[in-house]
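It is worth pausing here to work through a concrete case rather than discussing structure prediction in the abstract. The textbook approach is simple: state the sequence, then state the predicted structure, then interpret. We follow exactly that order.
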Amino acid sequence: MTAFDRALPDIMGKMREDDLLIITADHGCDPATPSTDHSREYTPMLAYGSGIRHGVDLGTRRSFADISATVLEYLGVPAGDTAGESFLGEIAFPTPEKLMESAVRAREFAYVPYSDFRVGAALLTKNGKIYTGCNVESASYSPTNCAERTALFKAVSEGDTEFSAIAVVGGMGEKLSDSCPPCGVCRQMLAEFCSPDMPVYLGTPKSFTRHTLGELLPYSFTRNDLS
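Step two, the predicted structure:
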């Protein structure tokens, strides 16, 4: 164990961005019992990687097979007859495709009786949580709120103010446009909380482009301009 602990920083330092490290043991031994046999069936498990969320509590798993199912899903290998249940979805950051799909689902709730232009947004926090939003129109027009700001305000009102990506979809009626970029006001509000290099995904789940907030709003007015 001591040798492994010493080697662990070097192992972690050599990991690639798409690597996943899972550390566990076969069985546990309770040091409080005189027995040398397996005296405790529960063992800890740690998962680490650049695409893995921090601080996720997986609780008590039913089987070691859950680890094998997780590894198979991570590698894109069919699980076959594996008895385990993958927990990859609980620990991994959502992919851009998943973020786009979340935006599409949010779009279904758009309240747009005047324009019929439906927009959905999915805002990803740095701890892996997704806040979604849709556009909400008003008969007097000016109070109308965009999907991006709906998602942002929901996040901030829940105490989340650090974000790593946003996906936006939109279009007339049921049809999705090839691209639905945020309006100027939404770009300015995103710049209040997000870094210029934050990815902004536009398009559809099957075909989308990646931009940065800085590209969409190169000359934003920020708190630095007030000092």
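Step three, interpretation. The CA atoms of residues 120 and 169 lie 5 Å apart. Helices lie at 2-13, 65-75, 88-91, 96-107, 147-157, 184-193, 213-216.
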